[in-house]
Structure formats: C-alpha cells, structure tokens
UniProtKB/TrEMBL annotation, chain A:
Every tRNA-specific 2-thiouridylase MnmA-like central domain range: 213-277
Active-site residues per Swiss-Prot or TrEMBL entry: C101 (nucleophile), C198 (cysteine persulfide intermediate)
CC terms in the record's Gene Ontology section: cytoplasm
Source organism: Nocardioides psychrotolerans
Key word Transmembrane helix present: no
Gene of this entry: mnmA
NCBIfam families, sorted: PRK00143.1 (NF001138), trmU (TIGR00420)
EC number: 2.8.1.13
Keywords: ATP-binding, Cytoplasm, Disulfide bond, Nucleotide-binding, RNA-binding, Transferase, tRNA processing, tRNA-binding
Substrates-to-products reaction catalysed: S-sulfanyl-L-cysteinyl-[protein] + uridine(34) in tRNA + AH2 + ATP = 2-thiouridine(34) in tRNA + L-cysteinyl-[protein] + A + AMP + diphosphate + H(+)
One Pfam family hit: tRNA_Me_trans
Biological process terms in GO annotation: tRNA wobble position uridine thiolation
Stored InterPro entries: MnmA-like (IPR004506), MnmA-like_C (IPR046885), MnmA-like_central (IPR046884), MnmA-like_central_sf (IPR023382), Rossmann-like_a/b/a_fold (IPR014729)
Name assigned to this protein: tRNA-specific 2-thiouridylase MnmA
Boundaries of every tRNA-specific 2-thiouridylase MnmA-like C-terminal domain copy: 287-357
Automatic annotation (TrEMBL), chain B:
Protein name: cysteine desulfurase
Entry EC no(s): 2.8.1.7
Similarity-based family: Belongs to the class-V pyridoxal-phosphate-dependent aminotransferase family. NifS/IscS subfamily.
Catalysed reaction equations from the record: (sulfur carrier)-H + L-cysteine = (sulfur carrier)-SH + L-alanine
Origin superkingdom: Bacteria
GO MF: cysteine desulfurase activity; iron-sulfur cluster binding; metal ion binding
Organism expressing this protein natively: Nocardioides psychrotolerans
Cofactor: pyridoxal 5'-phosphate
C-alpha cells in the first residue's frame, strides 16, 4: 500500500515511518508546515513548526530511504486550529488544539489529499492501537504504553479516518521506540519529547493569548470574586489567563477565612468576572457534551469510562446519547472541568468516541455552570 | 541520469542546476592533486596562479571582457551580493545622496535579498519596478523613476534572464537610460550565459554575475564580471586575492572547471539554443495537448529575443504545483515549482505574482527547464505522464 507518513521531526513519527516502510509499504514522508512564517510561532526545535524540525524530518527520511516533501498546511492550520483556539479562550472555554488538529488537519486535510493523490493511508507516530473488531469495524484502543497513550487526542476520528490510518507505535513502549531509533541510525533518537501546544512559545498560554487575542477578547480585565461571599478579592487583566480548576497565579491578597486555597470555579468572558472558591466546589458529577464524534457505532447507553484531559485519569461513567447531545454521569467525580475540554469515552481500552464539554453539574451544589 | 539504472530519471530542472560537462570534469580533476596556493611565490604557487589566470582569460574571451574584469567568487549569489552591496557602498561613499536602489520585482532572491537588506539596515530606498504580464520590465516606469531624481540613484540591477519564466530583460534599454545619468547597472546573468548571446563589453553593463553549475561547470564557483573603472567595496576582507574586492584563497581546480564549462557553453550557444527551442516546442505542444486548460506562462515561444530557449513554465489550473511535482517525482520526472524557502515550504512565486497572477494560479505552476543532456525521450516521458498526474492532483485539490 502507498502510505503517507507525517513526520514532525521527532523520534516517534520517524520510527513510525521506518516501521511502515519495513512492513513493505511504499512510504512517502511529509513534514507539515503549520506556520506560515517558520519559527514565528515558537523558536527552537520542540516538536513542530521550525526549520530545524523540518530538517530533522528530512534527515530521518533520508536514512529510512523514502522520498520527502514539505506540505504547506499553514493556512488551514491557522483557520481551523489557531483561530479556533483563540475563539474558544475568548469565549471563556478551554479547548484542546491537538484534538482539533487531528480532526481538521492530520486526518482530514492531509488524509483527504493523500487519498486523492493515490495513497491508501496516513501513518503517524501517535501511541494508539488499531485492530479490526468482530463486526468488521476498525477499533482504536489505548497504547500498550499507558504513560504515552495518545488515544485521547485521537478520540475525534471516525470510522473512515481510522480505516485509512496507521499507528505503528501503539504496541511499543516509548523507551523501546527510542532504542529502535538509535538502532536504525535515526539522529532524532535522543530528541526531547514535545509537550506543550506547538504554536505557543515556552508553554506560556496566557502570555501568548494576551499578545494574540487583542480585540477578540471582549474583556481585558475584570473582578476576581469569592464564590461564597460575593466579595471582590482582586482584579485581573484578562479572562484568558485563567482556566477552571486553576489554583496558581490568582494573586489574591485576602486569604480565605478557612485558610484553604482557592480555585477558579467559573469564568464569565463578557463581564470578565472570574469566580473563585473552595476545591470541593470544583467537583463535577455530570457533564453535557456536544459535537460528538464516534469512532464506530453510536452507543445509546454505555457504562464505561471517560477521560477529560490529555494526561488525565479515567472516570467511571454512564454515557447516554440522544441525537447530537451526550450526557455523561460520572461515577467518580472529576475536579475542575472546563467547558471546551474534550470528554473521550472508552469501553475498556477501546475508544468509543468523544464530545466537547458544554456544561458541567457540580456534585456539591446542583448548580449548572453552563457557558455560552 | 545513469544509463544503467532500470528507471532512468527524466531531469527537467536544468535551470536549477545542470550536469557538469566532461570537459569541465576533466579540467577540474586534472588539478585536484596539484599543490600550490596561487598567491605563493614559488614554482608550485606560480603553476597554480597560471591556471587561475588562464581561466580568467578564457572566461574574459568567452563573455568579451578584459581578464582583469573577472572577479572569482563562490558562485552567483556571492557575485550578486558583491555587486549590489559593493557598488552601493562605494557610490554612497562618493556621494551620500545616492540612496536609491532600483531593481525589478522579478529578480532572484540573490538580488532581492541584498537589496532589501540595504533598505532595512543601510538606509537605501528600494524601488521594485513593475513588469508586464510576460515578466518584462516596464521601461517607462524605470525611466520615470530615474528621471525623477537621477542624482539619488546608487545603482540599477536588472537580471539578464528570469530564472522562473525565462523572460529576457531589455538590458540594452536599461543601460541606455542609466548611462545618460552615469548610473551603474548590474545584471544577474546566471541563467543567460551559454543559453543566449552575452557580450559584456557590447552590453554596456557595469557588472554581471555568472555561476559554474548553471553552465555545466562545478558548484560553488562563479564570477562577478565588473568594469575595471567601477569602484566596488569589498564584502569579504582578507588577503585581497581578487582585485582587492574579494579575499580568500581561490579554488584553482574549480576555477579551471568553470573556465572549461563557460568556454564550451558559449562556443556551442547558437546550436544549443536551436536544439533547446525545438525540444521546448515539443514539450509545450505536448503538454498543452495532454492537459486541457493548461497555460504557458511568460513570453511567446517564437521570438528568440524574448525568452530563454530551454524554459517552459506552465500553469495547471485546479492543481497544487506541489502535488503535481510529487506525483511526477514518483514517476522519475523532475521539475520545479519555483522558489522554496529554507524549510522547503512552497510559497507562491513572487515572479508570477509580479506578473499579475493570482496566488492560486501561481501555486498551480511548474517550471520545466531543458539543458544539454535533455532528449526527445525526456520530453515524451513528461508528455505521457502529465495528463494522469494533473487529473490526480486536481482531485486532491477539490
């Protein structure tokens, strides 16, 4: 099969491409240029977007012995991922741009183009496993290496996308992937992992948003208000600097009467009000989800688990669906869940699908923290 | 290019670089084991120096300049930089009012970037002059710009031939406009040597850049041909080996290879051009017939004074040139989409944009450039492959 290997310049995608080639596929490597002006989104080789990463990917392709090209996806990436990220923050939500990128760029724009150009699949270095289920559908499961498992950020892929994807690393531990890279003579064997959002320099989300949002943020400042007393505890310079569940960086002068730390409970982007309060108030036992994406068959009711953050734990949950609405009852409460986050639904190790959190219901008080 | 390979490469990117001719390989390799710094005073040094000077004379004869006007550089980009910055600084030094640098909007980056650099850091006022739909300089715009304030023009740089669409620029007319006011003219002649007649003395230009690897010579060696009377400030300081405006021990074997290639290319230019034009006609006709909607960019093919003989530049509406290049590459057919940045990110060609094309049109274009090893079989292989490739690339864009 003709396979298009997306190569970020990191060790994972390099080994994934090498494995696809070794498996007998006719592999072509591509590096996605996601920034119109390379190095403008962030500097230094940290996973994507730089000339250095592009060169690392090119050298890996040389060693694997496959053709290599750079595809310019910068416009699509800006529209579908960066703009969306900014809009979501401006609206007081907490988006995950990696999911969005997988949904709109890697397994949509890139995959569609690949299929049209005669390729049969796109291979990436994501840690997840694909297997064919008894019903003949392609199932996506968590990776063997639970510490590296990336099935969460792939929870937006549907059956068509899964059927044309290859994740050659899902059955391997990261340490073994590095060792294999070294064995194969890939120079990126020791390259550090990328972590933060690829287009935000130094992981400084708030700083980046402050600079980029400009007029998009309706409110650059506002009050920090105590949830219990309604008292204004301080002022802030922009709601985008906050995320629900945040504890650090609130810079509140007055301590809570009980001396316990306060957390961000709610963000109101229009008025600019940030509500803070005790940790218990963050506990959530029910979620509403919108924009569901299903990997295969749509479940009516499912007793499974839900993951709410890229490296978060699993919560036992009962999931019920109706049309495009998803109701998630958490049997283990979750803390600090923000609208905009993705809830990825699992049945055991199998990814069932995902939804975007639109509202949460607190476990302590049955007050809905719905946002616009 | 290997004959023994089961899947011979169809190389249609000679404007990027063309294979070395055997005479250049011979000339270069003949001196690889010789010791001797051309600046040394002993017998070995003199022997090396003799090779360098004989090469200089060979090149001077081929392009019709005086040997002392040939300044060896490490290629075309360095020659362009030396001309633009060196002449600008020298003209500025003589008269600080000379701040304007006039050039065209379709120059190679080796010209545009030093010009922009002068604008950003050295106080130059940069004027990019417009071109017509064929990429030819608008002479009225040049004349108007010069005559607005001739005393403030430091230099004019206009390429002899465009690397992307092959347009030959009206260098004679540029020189006539400049000469009336004593303004020096530099020309990037990298694509022109060996493909069209180039006579340095007769052209009246003050400086001309050439490079080895575009004429069948080695990489990493070139020359700035620059009039003896013109003062040029050095970019690279040191031993002053090349007329005190370019320092660094010269690469004797490479220079011998360069001279052999230039001599041969210029000698064979007339018949080479005839052969290229015939092959190019076959290519363009074949591709236009195979791909409905394809369009030729740049000047018409029938006027030999309008366009480089081996250049074919075509737009394939509805395609990404990028996808098309990849599909052709997979079939062993090699061509170019135009300028690429250092990360390999394809940008719409500034040349096509300057010619009034939309970014989408510009992105749908490919350059096929023929050279001394090109054959009818190469052209026919492209013509056979292009139809299905375009069809597929169009589907990928839809």
């Amino acid at each position: 099969m003709k396979v298009l290997a997306a190569m970020s310049g990191g060790v994972d995608s390099a080994v994934a491409a090498a494995r696809a080639a070794q498996a007998g596929h006719d592999v072509t490597g591509i590096h996605l240029a996601l920034s119109r002006n390379p190095a403008s989104y962030r500097s230094g080789a940290r996973g994507c977007c730089t000339i250095e990463d592009s060169n690392d990917a090119r050298r890996a392709a040389d060693i694997i012995g496959i053709p290599f090209y750079v595809w310019d996806l910068s416009e699509r990436f800006h529209e579908d991922v960066v703009e969306d990220f900014m809009d979501e923050y401006a609206a007081g939500r907490t988006p995950n741009p990696c999911l969005r990128c997988n949904e709109k760029i890697k397994f949509a724009a890139v995959l569609d183009r690949a299929l049209a150009l005669g390729f049969g699949a796109v291979a990436t270095g994501h840690y997840a496993q694909l297997r064919t289920g008894e019903d003949g559908l392609i199932e996506m499961h968590r990776a063997i290496d639970h510490g590296k498992d990336q099935s969460y950020v792939l929870g937006v892929l549907d059956q068509h996308q899964l059927a044309h994807s290859l994740f050659p690393l899902g059955d391997t531990h990261k340490s073994a992937v590095r060792a294999e890279a070294a064995e194969r003579g890939l120079l990126v064997a020791d390259k550090p992992d990328s972590h933060d959002i690829c287009f935000v320099a130094d992981g400084d989300n708030a700083g980046w948003l402050r600079e980029k949002l400009g007029d998009r943020a309706p409110n650059h400042g506002g009050a920090i208000v105590d949830d219990a007393t309604g008292e204004e505890l301080g002022r802030h310079t922009g709601t985008y600097g906050f995320t629900i569940g945040q504890r650090k960086g609130l810079r509140i002068g007055t301590p809570a009467p009980d001396g316990k730390p306060r957390f961000v409970l709610d963000i109101e982007p229009v008025s600019g009000t940030v509500t803070v309060g005790a940790r218990e108030r963050l506990a959530v036992d029910r979620l509403s989800g919108i924009k569901p994406r299903w990997c295969g068959t749509v479940p009516r009711r499912l007793e499974g688990t839900v993951q709410l953050r890229a490296h978060g734990g699993e919560h036992r949950a009962v999931v019920t669906t109706a049309d495009d609405a998803v109701d998630i009852e958490l049997l283990d409460p979750a803390f600090g869940i923000a609208p905009g986050q993705a809830a990825v639904i699992y049945d055991g190790t199998r990814v069932v699908g995902s939804a975007t959190v639109s509202a949460t219901v607190s476990a302590t008080v049955a007050a809905t923290q719905a946002t616009t | 290019m290997s004959q023994s390979s089961p899947d011979p490469v169809v190389y249609l990117d000679h404007a990027a670089t063309t294979p070395m001719v055997p005479a250049a390989v011979e000339a270069l390799t003949a001196h690889l084991l010789d010791v001797g710094n051309p600046s040394s005073l002993h017998a070995s040094g003199r022997r090396a120096r003799r090779i360098v000077e004989e090469s200089r004379e060979t090149i001077a004869q081929a392009v019709n300049c005086r040997p002392g006007e040939v300044v060896f550089t490490a290629g075309g980009t360095e020659a362009d930089n030396l001309a633009i910055k060196g002449i600008y600084w020298s003209r500025q030094g003589t008269d600080a009012r000379r701040t304007r640098v006039l050039t065209t909007s379709v120059e190679h980056h080796a010209v545009l970037d030093p010009v922009f650099w002068l604008g950003e850091g050295e106080g130059a006022q940069v004027e990019l002059l417009p071109v017509d739909r064929d990429g030819r300089l608008d002479l009225d715009a040049l004349r108007a710009s010069v005559e607005r304030d001739p005393a403030s023009v430091a230099l004019i740089s206009v390429m002899w031939a465009n690397n992307e669409v092959g347009t030959l620029q009206p260098v004679d007319d540029v020189v006539a406009i400049a000469a009336a006011h004593g303004i020096p003219v530099h020309t990037d002649g990298v694509q022109a040597i060996g493909t069209v007649p180039v006579d340095f003395a007769a052209s009246g230009v003050d400086a001309l850049a050439l490079t080895g690897h575009k004429v069948g010579g080695p990489y990493g060696v070139g020359a700035l041909v620059v009039r003896r009377e013109l003062a040029v400030t050095a970019l690279v300081h040191g031993g002053g080996q090349e007329r005190d405006i370019r320092s660094g021990t010269v690469d004797t074997p490479a220079i011998a290879g360069l001279a052999a290639a230039v001599e041969l290319a210029v000698k064979h230019q007339p018949e080479h051009a005839v052969r290229m034009r015939a092959l190019r006609a076959r290519l363009v006709e074949g591709v236009l017939a195979a791909v409905p909607g394809a369009m030729l960019n740049g000047p018409a093919l029938d006027d030999p004074t309008a366009r480089l003989p081996g250049n074919a530049h075509l737009s394939f509406p509805g395609c990404e040139g990028d996808s098309l290049l990849m599909l052709l590459d997979a079939r062993g057919i090699e061509c170019s989409t135009g300028s690429a940045c250092s990360a390999g990110v394809p940008q719409p060609s500034h040349v096509l944009l300057a010619m009034g094309r939309e970014p989408d049109e510009a992105r749908s274009s490919l350059r096929f450039s023929l050279g001394h090893t090109s054959t009818e079989a190469d052209v026919d292989a492209l013509v056979a492959a292009i139809g299905p490739c375009v069809e597929r690339a169009r589907a990928a864009k839809a």
